[in-house]
Each structure stands twice: as structure tokens, then as C-alpha cells.
Amino acid sequence: MAAPLPAGRCGHVRLAALDAAAAGRAGESEIAALFAARGDAARAIIAYADELRRAVCGDAVTYVVNRNINYTNICTYHCSFCAFSKTSAKAGLRDAPYRLSAEEIARRVQEAAAAGATEVCLQGGIHPAYHGDTYREICRAAKTAHPAIHIHAFSPLEITHGATTLGLPVTDFLRLLQADGLASLPGTAAEILCDDVRARLCPDKLSTREWLAVIRAAHGVGLPTTATIMFGHLDRYDHWAQHLLIVRRLQEETGGFTEFVPLPFVSMQAPIFVRGAARAGPTWRECVLMHAIARIALHGAIGNIQASWVKLGVGGASACLAAGANDIGGVLMNESISRAAGAAHGQSLDVAALSASLAHAARPLTQRTTLYGRLRGAPGCEDLSALRAMRGREVQSSGRPT
């Protein structure tokens, strides 16, 4: 439990309410009320969360050296927030449609491993030609390219699509992917786990119940996952509270979540924002409070709260490290999805730059594995010339046009 805060720092927040939230006893309305905090009240919540972080994780800031491989941006779904998916080259969109071959995926895995990556994160659109065996081929290509690398791959939507196309139960399909090298799943496609919002945000995507069923099945076969929330679009504070409580309940049931990752809505190129139907993303106050309240509401269930530098920028992520977050995410990114929506924080970050950005926090930077094992004395990925060369080759071989 967090150290008691002096009364003068509590603002209008009762410590009993924070204690109840951290013990898993707060309801939706109590957690939602925390998101409305301002001034001294907000500062009290942030300080409380930071004390919890220190008690649970210590002062180390962890990161993983990884590479994101988005193998296709062609997608049959029509999520109103997504600026990444493309349909055809004739649409006049920002990025041309592409689909990476298994050989190109393998090449990128080998290149990532040579640059120091311990993980590859594989995700993409739901290509109309993809089926369950396609995802198996992707896994095998990555595992064959570098057997020691951790394969963190496939959203619950992709898992559902693969299982359905093969006529298999989700659990059986997950076991096949495990045999092919899959080691963990990203808990993406969660967006907001509230079906009234999902009906407007991503109406043809998985329902809350369906998303939870895939995650529960993954945990059941021994595949850990992350958990995410995308916030600041059509949602309200009660939706955020509901989402946190749903995640906590599943974690108490399965214990399979490794981390919780708040993802601020990136609006600039998002169709729903361009149409004027959504907010321009959360405010900075809301971003910081989301990390703090996630730390409090998930205390005792999920120990790791990640601040995504891809969404927040390194400076923003650094600020959230003082509000309950303990992890900075992946360093060697080559990430395409946020960039397509208009994010401007880059696609890769070397350890030296990250360390310099966090110097003012006076907290040690520690490399971890995907599952939060510590890699002491690991070299990381500090070769800037290797990173730049990798990015250049990726641009030249972005896959075959489709």
C-alpha cells in the first residue's frame, strides 16, 4: 500500500477512496470520479500512484529491445479510428497498400536480432486473402529466421479470424500457433471494452465478450498477453472505469496479463475525427491521470504500467513515469500504425537517446524481456548507424503491392 499522503496534499480526494481503489474495492462510479480530479486533487492521485509504483516496482525504468513488423496494411474491417488500413492503391491514401512476404518477414527478424532485439511484435490488418495457415506461416518464418527471438504476435481479432477460417475453436488454433513459435499476444483490439462505444467506434470488430474470450483462452493455454486501452475519442470517464475493472477481474481469474498499456487516441488522420465525430484525443491531464489511476485500480493484479513513447513522445512518457508508470515499452520500433494516424514521435529510438531523455528522472534504465525478466549487462541497441540502415532498407522493401 502507498505511504499515507500528508493532509495538505490531498486536495478534495479522500485517501480512503484511493485505498479502496488500490484494494480492488472501488466501483465504477468511484473510479470514474478520480478522472475528473484537477489541481491539488489530481496531484494527490498522481503522488499516490507514484508511491504504489515505487513499492511494487522500485525505481528502475524498464524497456524491451524489439521490432514491430506490420505485415500488411490491407484490412477488410472498417474501424472508424483507424488510419492504417488500406483497401487499394487507387484510393489516394497516404500510404500504398502492401503485404509482406514470408521471406521479407524473416529478413526483418534476422535484421532485428542482429541489432540486439529480443522480441518481434507481429500485427497487421485482416487481409481478405489471409486465413489461419497464413498466421502459422508468419510464425514459422519468424521462428526459423531466429529461433531464440520472442514472438509476440496477433491481436485477438487476428486470432479469431484465423480460427474461424480453419473451422477450429480458438483454443485449438492458439495451440497450433504455440507449436509454430508464438510466445505471447498483444492485448490490442481492446480499444474500449464497452459495447455501446464499440458499436460506433468499431462496429464490425469483436465485442467485449468476444475479446475477453480470446484473451481468456490464450491465458488458459499458457500464452501471456498485454492489456491495452485506447481512450479520448467517443468515450467518457465511466467507460474508462468500466474498462479498468473488466481488465482487473480477468486478471484476478487468469493471472495472464503482463502489463497494462494506455494508448491515447491519435486523431489527426483518424477518419472519425476527420468527419468531426470524435474528440481530438485526451487532454494532457487525462493522459497523466490514466496512467496514475490504472496503477491504482490495477494494484495487486497487474504490476507493470507502460507509458508508450510512440503515442506520448519520450518527454510525455517520461512525465508519466512520475505518475505510476514503470515501463517505457519497446525501443527498436519501426512502428507504422500510430504514424499512419498522424503521430509524430518517430519509429525507432536508441538506448542512448532514451537514457539521456530520462536523465532528469534520476532512475536507472534496465533492459527486460517481453515477460519482464531482467537482462543485466545487456548491450541493448545503441548502434545508431545500424538503426538508420535498417530503416532505409525497410523503406526500399516495403513488401509486394497488392
List keywords for this structure.
about 400 residues; TIM Barrel; three-stranded parallel beta sheet; 9 strands; about 45% helix; globular
SSE run: HHHEEHEHEHHEHHEHEHHHEHHEH
Distance between the termini: 54 Å
Q: Which blocks of ≥5 consecutive residues have pLDDT under 50?
A: 1-10, 88-93, 335-345, 378-392, 394-402
Strand runs, count:
9
Mean pLDDT across all residues, rounded?
A: 85
Main beta-sheet strand count, sense and barrel state: 4 strands, parallel
How many discrete domains? 1
Shape: globular
What is the C-alpha radius of gyration, as a whole number of Å?
Answer: 20 Å
Describe the structure.
The protein has 402 residues and is an alpha/beta fold. The chain has one domain (30-396): Aldolase class I (TIM Barrel, Alpha-Beta Barrel), CATH 3.20.20.70. The protein contains 16 helices and nine strands. The strands form three sheets. It has a four-stranded parallel β-sheet. The protein has a three-stranded parallel β-sheet with strand order 8-1-9. Strand 6, helix 10 and strand 7 form a beta-alpha-beta unit. Helix 2 (28-35) crosses helix 10 (237-254), helix 4 (102-114) packs parallel to helix 5 (132-145) and helix 5 runs parallel beside helix 7. 53% of the residues are buried.
